[in-house]
Amino acid sequence: MSESSIIVERHDDVVCLKLNRPEALNALNNQMMGEVKDALEKLDRDDTVKVIVLTGSERAFAAGADIKEIAGKTEQDMQAQDFIEERWESAARCKKPIIAAVAGYALGGGCELAMMCDYIIAADNAKFGQPELSIGVIPGAGGTQRLTRFVGKSKAMDMTLTGRMMDAEEAEKSGLVSRVVSVEKLLEQAISDAKKIAKLSQASVKLAKECVNQAYETTMEEGVRFERREFHALFGTRDQIEGMNAFIEKRAPDFKD
Ligand code: CAA
C-alpha cells in the first residue's frame, strides 16, 4: 500500500483528520476511504477524543469519488464491493460530533462526505456540487437525499440536474453550511468550535446529536417524544447537577462525563 492519504493531528481532546491526496484534489479512492473509516472507528472508541474535525486542503475538501479508480468497474464489481456502504458511511455512523471544515471543491462524493458530518463550516472559497450526471452516473453517497433535506427540492434538483456549483455564500443562505469564514481562518474556527463542544458534558453532546439526527428519521410527535425521554434521562447524570449548580453558584462547570 502507498503512503497514508490522511493526516491525523491531535489538538488536546480534538482530532483533526485531513484528507491528503493533493495531486488528485483529494479524490476519494478506496485506500483513502479505508483509512478514513479505520481512523473514525478508532477515534469513536477512544475516550480521550471528544470531537473530530474533517478537512481537506485550501484547494479542495474533496473532488468526489476517484473517477480513475471506478471508471472500469462493472455493476457486479460495485455490488460485490458494497461500494460506498462499506467504507464511506463511517462519517454518518460516528457517535462523536464531526465538523466538516470545507475549503475549495466539495464535489460529488466530497459534498456527500461533508454532508455526512454534523455540520459544515465553509471557507469563502468553497464550492459545492453534485456533478455526477456529467460523467454518466448519479450521486451515490446520499447526495440526492441529504442535499434535498439541506437545501430543499428546487436547489437540489438544480444542482443535481445541471451540475452547477454553489458558492459558499449561496450555501450558507440555503442552509447547507452553518457559517462562512475566510479560508485562512477555517481550521482555527473549526478547531475552536470543536474545543468548545469538547468542554461540555459529553453525555448531553451525544444525546443532542442523536436527537437532532432523529428529526430526519421520524415524525414531529415521535421526535419530540424521543427528545423528551433523553432530556429526562440527563437528570440521572452528575453533569446535570454540576451544570445547574455551577450556574446558580456563578462559576464555570466542571463536567466529568
Ligand atoms: N477523480 C480522480 N481524479 C480527479 C478527480 C476525481 N474526482 N478530480 C480531480 N482529479 C484529478 C485530475 O484528473 C487532475 O489529475 P492530473 O493532473 O493527473 O490530470 C488533478 O486532479 C487536478 O484536476 P484538474 O486538472 O481537473 O483541476 P481543475 O482545477 O482544472 O478542475 C475540478 C477542478 C473542477 C474539480 C475538476 O477536476 C473536476 O471536475 N473533477 C471531477 C469532479 C467530479 O465529477 N466529481 C464527482 C465524482 S463521481 C462521485 O463522486 C460519485 C459519488 O457520488 C460517490
Q: What is the strand and helix layout of this fold?
A:
Layout: E1 6-11, E2 14-19, H1 30-45, E3 51-55, E4 60-62, H2 67-70, H3 75-81, H4 90-93, E5 98-102, E6 105-107, H5 109-116, E7 119-123, E8 127-129, H6 143-151, H7 153-162, E9 166-167, H8 168-174, E10 179-181, H9 186-198, H10 202-214, H11 220-233, H12 238-248
Parallel strand pairs: 2-3, 3-5, 4-6, 5-7, 6-8, 7-10
Antiparallel strand pairs: 1-2, 8-9
The protein binds acetoacetyl-coenzyme A.
Describe the 3D structure:
The structure is a single chain. This protein is α/β, with parallel strands linked by helices. It has 12 helices and 10 strands. It is globular, with a radius of gyration of 19 Å. The chain binds acetoacetyl-coenzyme A. Acetoacetyl-coenzyme A (CAA) binds at residues 24-25, 27, 63-68, 105, 107-109, 112, 131-132, 135, 139-141, 143. Residues 24-25, 27, 63-68, 105, 107-109, 112, 131-132, 135, 139-141, 143 line the site of acetoacetyl-coenzyme A.
Low-pLDDT residue spans: none
Query: Kindly state the mean pLDDT as a whole number?
Result: 96
Tell me which oligomeric state these chains represent: single chain
How would you spell out the order of helices and strands? EEHEEHHHEEHEEHHEHEHHHH
Write out the strand line-up for the largest beta sheet, numbering strands in chain order: 1-2-3-5-7-10
Number of helices: 12
Strand content: 15-25%
Number of strands: 10
Provide the structure class.
alpha/beta
For the terminal residues, how far apart are their CA atoms? Answer: 39 Å
Main beta sheet: strand number and arrangement? 6 strands, mixed
Ligand names: acetoacetyl-coenzyme A
Shape verdict:
globular
> Rg from C-alpha positions?
19 Å
Helix proportion range: 40-55%
